[in-house]
Amino acid sequence: MRFFVVCPGGLEVSLAQELASIAQRPDCKALGAWVIDPTPTSPTGGVGLAAPLSAAMALNLHSRIASRVLLQMADAQYRQEEDLYKLASGLAWEEWFSSKQTLRVDVTAHRSPLKSLNFATLKIKDAIVDRLRDVTGDRPSIDTAFPDVRVQAHLTATHVTIYLDTSGEALFKRGWRDEKGDAPLKENLAAGILAITGWKPSQTLFDPMCGSGTFLVEAAQIALAIPPGAIRSGMYGDDAKPSRLAYRPLVTSAHGFGFQRLKPFNEASEQKRWVALKEAAQAEMIEKRKQFPDSGSLGISGSDINERLVAMFKGNWQRAQLPGLPVTRQVDALASKPPADAKDGVMLLNPPYGERLVIKGGRGQDRTAGDAERDSYEDVEEPEDRFAYNLETGRQSAKRSSRESLKKLQSEEEQDPKFVEFLRQFGQHLKDTFGGWNVFVLTADMALPGQLRIKESKRTPLFNGPLECRLFKFEMHQKRDATADLK
Fold first, then answer.
1. Cβ proximity of 215 and 369 under 8 Å
2. How far apart are CA 323 and CA 242, in angstroms?
3. How many Å from the N-terminal Cα to the C-terminal Cα in the chain?
4. Which pTM value belongs to this model?
5. Residues in contact with 406: Cβ distance below 8 Å, sequence separation at least 6, in sequence order
6. N or C: which end of the chain has fewer CB within 10 A?
7. What are phi and psi of 205, to 5 degrees?
8. How far apart are CA 479 and CA 487, in angstroms?
C-alpha cells in the first residue's frame, strides 16, 4: 500500500527520520516490509512510503510529527472535472465503508488548470456517493464537521491522487489539551522542533515562557515513551476529562482514528495487530516509568509570568498522563534561573510577544488586547490574506517572499518599544545566566537575533500553519572568570 504522511512545512526531514525509527520498532517490523521514500530536499508537506495496510495503525499511534496519514487509493492523469468523476467512481468504496456512514471530501491543488476547486470537490463527492448508491441502493450523508470517513484528493498540473484519511481528526489533537481557544502552537510542530534541537531525555530541558506547556508535555511524553496516540487509542482506562471551562471537547478514544471506521481495519486479523501494537507500547511505557518515576526525575521544567497559563500547563500535564505535577513556577523570564543539576542544558521557547509580560497575577489586573486575543482566536476577524496577520503574535507583519529584502521588511514592521527593550534585557540575561546552554527560539520575527543582540548559530525555516517562522539556535558561551585571568 502507498501512504503519504502529512506534516507541517519545514519538518519533512524530521518526519522522514521519525518514520524510519517507527519502521524499525520490532512490533512494526512484524507487520511487513516498509519502504520510505527518499528524504525530500524541498518543502513537500509530507513524506511518502510503501508499507502494509497495518502500518496505518502504527503511524497514527506513534508519529508525533505527522498531521495526517493518508492511504493512496488512486493516481492518474486528468484534464477536466469529468476525469475526476470517472476515476473516483471506478474505486470500490463499498469495500472500505458503508452508505450508512457520513462522508467529507477535501481537495487541494498545486498549479491545477481547473478553474474551481469547489466544483472538483463536488465531482469527486458525487462519484463516491453515486458509486455507493449503485452498489448498495443507498447513499451516504455529507458531514463536514465530524464525518465518519474523510476522502482527500490532490491535484497537480497533470495528475490527481485520491486518498482515504486514516487519521480522522488531525493527529496534533492528542487528547490532553484543555484550554479556551485554539493553541497557537500545534503539538506536532512542537514535537518536530524538539527533534530539530537534538534534545534527548538525558538532557535538561527548560522553557522560561512555557505558556500552557506544549513543548514540555511533548518532551515528557517522549521521555516516558508515551505514544502521541495513547489517549485516542484507548490505552488508558478512563479518558482525560475536560474542565468545566473547556471551550472545545477533548479528542478521546470515542473519536479514535479514522482507520477504526474503515471495514478492512475491523477484520479480526487487523484487530489482532492493533491490540499487539498497543500492548507493545504499553510495555515500553511501564519500563520508562521505572526510569523516570516522578516529574523531578525527568529534568524537564518551565516557568511563565502568567498565573492562568501556569495553571493550564499543570492541567495539560496531568491529562497527558504524566507523573505528578510539572516542575514549574510563576516567574518573570528575566528572573529565570537554570534548574539545579542541569545537564547539557537546552532552552526552548516560543515568545508570546508581550501579552504575558503584562500579567503577573492573572486576576484583578488590567489585561492587554493581546491577552484577550490569546484566550480565543475566534474573536479575531482574520483578513483575507492569512499571511498579513500573525495569529501567533497578534502583530501585523509584512508578507514575505524570498525575493524581498529582509532588512526592508524588518524596518517596515511596527515594533513595540517595551517588548524590544524586554528582548534586549532577556538577551543579556541569557548571556549572564545561561552560559553553556543551547537556546532555541521559535518566532515569526526575523529580526529577533538583533533584538536579543546575540548572533544565531543556525536558523531553520518552519511554518506554523500558513505563517512563516524561524527556529533560531543560539550557543551561549560560558562567561570567562575575570579573577582567574588575573592569576
1. no
2. 18
3. 69
4. 0.86
5. 400, 446
6. C
7. -125, 130
8. 17
C-alpha cell at 171: 493527529
Strand duo 438-443 + 467-475: pairing = antiparallel
Side chain identity at 253, as an amino acid letter?
A: S
The alpha carbon torsion through 125, 127, 131, 132 (nearest 10 deg) reads: 10
Q: Which residue has the cell 546575540?
A: 454
pLDDT for residue 374 is more than 80? no
pLDDT tens column, 294-349: 999 999 999 999 999 999 999 999 999 999 999 999 999 999 999 988 989 999 99
Give backbone dihedrals phi and psi of 26, rounded to 5 degrees, phi first: -55, -40
Are the CB atoms for 203 and 346 separated by under 8 Å?
yes
> Residue 464 carries which side chain, given as an amino acid letter?
N
Cβ neighbours of 138 (radius 10 Å): 11
Pick the residue with more confidence: 363 or 339?
339
What's the length of the chain?
Answer: 487
Which single residue is written with the C-alpha cell 478521546? 252
Kindly compute the dihedral angle of the four CA atoms of residues 209, 212, 214, 215, in this order, to the nearest 10 degrees: 20
State the pLDDT at residue 236: 85
CB within 8 Å of 458: residues ≥ 6 apart: 472, 473
Cell, residue 111: 498549479
Exposure b/e, 261-272, CB count within 10 A at least 16 = b:
bbeebeeeebee
What's the CA gap between 143 and 23, in Å, rounded? Answer: 34
Contacts for 283 with CB less than 8 Å, ≥ 6 apart: none
Taking CA atoms, 435 is separated from 207, 259, 475, in Å, by 16, 48, 8
- 452 and 427 in contact (C-beta within 8 Å)? yes
Amino acid at 124: I
Return the pLDDT at 483. 52
How far apart (Å, rounded) are the C-alpha atoms in residues 320 and 449?
A: 34
How many angstroms separate the CA atoms of 152 and 46, rounded? 14
**Confidence band of 375 (pLDDT split at 50, 70, 90):** very low
